[in-house]
Write a structure and sequence with these properties.
- The chain has one helix spanning 76-93; strands at 11-19, 22-32, 47-57, 60-70.
- It has 94 residues and is α+β, with helices and mostly antiparallel strands.
- The longest helix has 18 residues, at 76-93.
- It is elongated and about 45 Å long.
Length: 94
């Protein structure tokens, strides 16, 4: 885990992978939702997550930012790996 650019108590995790002619960088920030005014409207809401991905393949660059809400604690590396594993499974099934 990396303290990185975490703000407002957010936890931060970053990973970089190279292979198959591409480079993929991922940044994950997880923020506890306990102080949100509408937190009670979401059953078991514990953490809000932002995942940013950038994939470079030859001359092409693809960027994406996705937001999640979860009942997982603020264990940012676990969340980042869970999101990545989900995308790997989803891509394989497509």
């Amino acid at each position: 885990m990396n303290d990185g650019p975490g703000i407002c108590g957010a936890k931060y995790f970053e990973s970089l992978e190279k292979g198959h002619g591409r480079i993929e960088a991922r940044q994950c920030m997880a923020l506890l939702a306990k102080d949100l005014p509408a937190q009670n409207e979401w059953e078991d809401l514990t953490t809000i997550v932002r995942v940013s991905r950038e994939r470079k393949e030859q001359e092409k660059v693809h960027q994406e930012t996705v937001y999640y809400i979860t009942s997982l604690d603020q264990e940012v590396e676990l969340i980042a790996n869970s999101v990545r594993d989900y995308w790997k499974i989803d891509t394989c099934q497509a």
